[in-house]
Amino acid sequence: MYANNEIALHVAGVTKRFVRSEGIRWPWKHNSNGPKPVVAVDNVSFDVARGEVFGILGPNGSGKSTLVRCLATLLIPDEGQIMIFGHDALREEMAVKRLINRVSVEASFFKKLTPMENLLYGARLYGLDARQARKQVVEILTRLGLKREDISRPMEEMSRGMQQKVAIARAFLTQPILLLLDEPTTGLDPRSKREVQAFVEELRDCHDATILLTTHDMQEADALCNRVAIIDDGKIVALDTPANLKASVARTNRHEVTLEDVFMELTGKRLQTEEETDE
Q1: What is the DSSP annotation of 219-267?
Q2: CA nearest neighbour of 71 among 169, 181, 174
Q3: Mapping DSSP to helix (H, G, I), strand (E, B) and coil, where does residue 278 land?
Q4: Which whole number is the average pLDDT over 211-221?
Q5: For burial by CB atoms within 10 Å, which of 66, 112, 149, 245 has the most?
Q6: CATH code linked to domain 50-76+176-278
Q7: Mean pLDDT across the stretch 63-83?
């Protein structure tokens, strides 16, 4: 549980628009005379305290990943402000990049290289000591459930679940004080999902890391997050602790209220995973 009032992340009125062209979304420009822009993130505001695990829930297309890309300085908001530990994400981009790291559902690697080689390459980019980084790589990957022999196996021979664990290790290797986890367990088998969730719990309880987590997994959000924001059509429709959100929905037929019940009550929609949507 977060224990102080220091603000790690301040998001104020953030809006991001795109225009669609032949199935591709392009950043919208104010002087554009083309198609009407699609508002992916619509005037979103919230604060995250240092040491907090803050969850963002929403269906595909709700704006979750676009918002995370704005926080990670990969996209520039059309409106609003993002402050990370007092640094403006637009004006002080390099200072912000040193404080954060991001894990996405589509993590990429040099597939011919091993996890060790991929992570040591990342460590060099951040100026980390190679010997210490090698030790940390082994510690983190074994904590996430990889066998030592897997650490020296090419990434292309690994399952998606194992690759996602390497992505999380790569992000944590730089010891960010704000970790952005964008659907880190989507598509993982149950065992891999539990191992990743246990590692997030360890980060929450034992390390000075603030975590922003987007997920489709209601149990995951309930177990890991101090507070949860529910986002729909680019807007936050509710923000509170999981317990308070569930308490806001009346229990029916002695059914134990879940966060998915809360989401359906507020939006009339059912949360879907990426795989369900593709199907």
Answers
A1: HHHHHH-SEEEEEETTEEEEEE-HHHHHHTS---TTPPP-HHHHHHHHH
A2: 181
A3: helix
A4: 89
A5: 245
A6: 3.40.50.300
A7: 94
Q: What is the spatial order of strands in the sheet that 53-57 belongs to?
A: 100-103, 178-182, 210-215, 53-57, 227-232, 235-240
Sign of the dihedral defined by the CA atoms of residues 82, 84, 87, 90, in that order: negative
| Token duo for residue 208 | 């000075």
Q: Is the whole-model pTM more than 0.90? A: no
Residue 102 and residue 171 in contact, taking contact as beta carbons nearer than 8 Å: yes
Residues 6+ apart with CB under 8 A from 96: 73, 84, 87, 88, 89
CA 114 from centroid of its chain's CA atoms:
24
- 165-200 as b/e: b if 16+ CB within 10 A: bbbbbbbbbbebbbbbbbbbbbebeeebbebbbebb
More confident residue, 133 or 254: 133
Per the CB < 8 A criterion, the answer to whether 182 and 214 are in contact is yes
